[in-house]
Amino acid sequence: MFARMSKPAPSKTNVMFALGLCSAAAWLAAAAYFAMTKGLLDGTGHAMGRDFVNNWTAARLASEGRIHEVFDPFQFYAAVHAMVDPTLLFHFWPYPPTYLAIVQPLGRLPYIPAFIVWSVASLGLLAVAARAVFPARSDVVFLLASPAVATNLVLGQNGGLTAALLLAAVAMIDRRPRTAGVLLGLLTFKPQLGLLAPVLVVAERRWSILVAAALTGAAFAGFSAVLFGVEAWRDFATLTVPMQTTMMQTGKGPFMLMMVSAFASGRVLGLDATWAMALQAPFTLAAGVLAWRACRGSGPVWAKVATMMVTTLLATPQALNYDMIPVAAAALLLAHRAQGWPDRALCVALWFAPILVIALNGMGAPITPLILAAAAFRLDREHTASARLAPAALAA
């Protein structure tokens, strides 16, 4: 289904210009952020690259054999103070041992060189994956210049890596389904981004993808257990997961401004975790239905790819602005076919959402899930229109 797409027709609107302006603003803000950095601290008192401090501290602890301290939130926080700066706010390691296996080599480098290596490697992988989706190199460059990428760089996050795995997996489903399954198996270190993978597999009846993903995920987990011991998984389950659950249900702080899910919108509006999850439920259900329709329908390939990118973020209760590079890819795909001002406005909103969400959540207007839902339903129209055209084409 997801074969490499043909080159799109030139856009008849100025939407690309608007996206370019949004990118310029985002990267000027990123440049200002790094210009304010002094030593290992940025201008706001956080570590440079904000969340990269988690990667680096965990990698250092792992390289020293202090595995238990990685997964114990309070011992990890003490290590952050000892290794980076004693004034830093609370940080904890929220990932399974599989992700620790990925970042462990960074512990052999000082903080800033490690941050540079991580950023360059993530962007390189993203560029390779994007090339499998976009036939034009200019679109790859445009995606790398998106506000989502700028946001991910400033926050030192793994959005470039997860987007590369997701984009490449979707692009390879038709041509190399087993490879697609392997990539989805590697994505299990952040399982919330693979929530719709079963929908994709069942709808496409690509059972080899499911087998490859399951075997890869199991091998990945086993490899991490060999590296760090089975105790690492025990500590993750008994120490890290409860802290992650507590932060999701009752946590406060800047991370709430960066969350883009309906669950987070409920939290921002003052709902408790139970009611916030109830608010998330129809969004997850709608995302699953729209993903199924896209995979089972006869719509254009670009719309199916874009649908999978948008619904992936719409379905999960735990999604943040640095996870939105796939949504930027969807916005770029839609921008080439935008029809009228509603499409143009939707493209701009999707493109700028990683930054816009901070302002919206901060003002108590957490409507980013509605933007994602609007995009998903707009893309569904492409599939519906194609289904209606097919019988007419056959009759002709």
Tell me what the structure shows.
The chain has 20 helices and no strands. The protein is an all-alpha fold. The protein has a domain of 259 residues.
Q: Could you give a quick summary of the protein structure above?
A:
This protein has 396 residues and is mostly helical. It has a domain at 15-39 and 123-219 and 251-387. Helices cover 71% and strands 0% of the residues.
Q: Spell the H/E element sequence.
A: HHHHHHHHHHHHHHHHHHHH
Flag low-confidence runs.
Answer: 1-12, 389-396
Task: Give the oligomeric state.
Answer: single chain
Question: What's the main sheet like?
Answer: none
Gross morphology = globular
Quantity of strands, as a count = 0
Fraction of helical residues: over 70%
Structural class by SSE content: mainly alpha
The averaged pLDDT comes out at 90
Distance between the termini: 25 Å
State which percent range the strand residues make up. Answer: under 5%
Write the layout of secondary structure elements.
Blueprint: H1 15-35, H2 52-63, H3 67-71, H4 73-83, H5 97-103, H6 111-133, H7 137-144, H8 147-155, H9 159-171, H10 177-186, H11 197-204, H12 207-228, H13 230-250, H14 255-258, H15 262-268, H16 273-296, H17 301-315, H18 325-335, H19 340-362, H20 368-395
